Amino acid sequence: MNPTIVLKEKTFELYLSEEEILDKIKSLAAQLNEDFKNQRPVFLVVLNGSVMLAADLLKEITIECDLSFVKLASYSGTQSSGDVRTLMGLHDDIKDRVVVVIEDIVDTGLTLTELMIQILKQYPKEIRVLTFLRKSQATKYHVQLDYIGFEVPNVFLVGYGLDINGQGRNLRDIYQLKK
Ligand code: IMP
């Protein structure tokens, strides 16, 4: 693990190690296994950012479940663009199903608000939201979050699925932009 890295000419410093990340994922998965026993939830993974999280989390899920994916984008560089684009919509049937959204990070809450509108149109039985990271100081749009991995400061992060203009998603650890 490197203490600092450079991406797109910006310097980032280590914020959460792979070990801390995987420990948290184990405890989140244990909670999901308990809460959704016998409910066969649909885990709805929000691409691209949640790809690493979903892979590690789902390996720890022992209950019966289904998987579905959507692809949304709202960020440009290190800032929210204020506009959510749906690059791949919701295709699987979620009517009367318990849906658990798997999000990497909630910043302003705009992406999740837009996704909730799309999910609700399909009449699920219940919607729960898991976000691995939450920038609580930045939240503008209120969305209920049922499972939160870490509360993080309002700084730009990369790694473990999070990117800066497409770079850094493959990093095992999470880094914060150096001031
Ligand atoms: P929101 O719509 O403002 O809540 O932003 C949510 C989306 O923006 C996430 O799913 C990420 O794709 C992206 N995002 C928010 N904060 C960061 C960050 O610190 N680094 C990288 N991507 C981020």
Describe the structure.
The protein has 179 residues and is of the alpha/beta class. Helix content is 21%, strand content 39%. The protein is built from three helices and ten strands; from the N terminus they run E-E-H-E-H-E-E-E-H-E-E-E-E. It has helices at 18-35, 51-59, 110-120; strands at residues 4-7, 10-16, 42-47, 66-76, 79-88, 98-106, 126-135, 147-152, 157-158, 174-177. The strands form two sheets. The protein has a six-stranded mixed sheet with strand order 5-4-3-6-7-8, sandwiched between helices. Strand 6, helix 3 (110-120) and strand 7 form a beta-alpha-beta unit. Helix 1 packs across helix 2 (51-59). The model has no long low-confidence stretch (mean pLDDT 93). The structure holds inosinic acid. Inosinic acid is lined by residues 49, 74-75, 80, 103-111, 156-158, 162-163. The site of inosinic acid (IMP) has 18 residues, from strand 4, strand 6, helix 3 and strand 9.
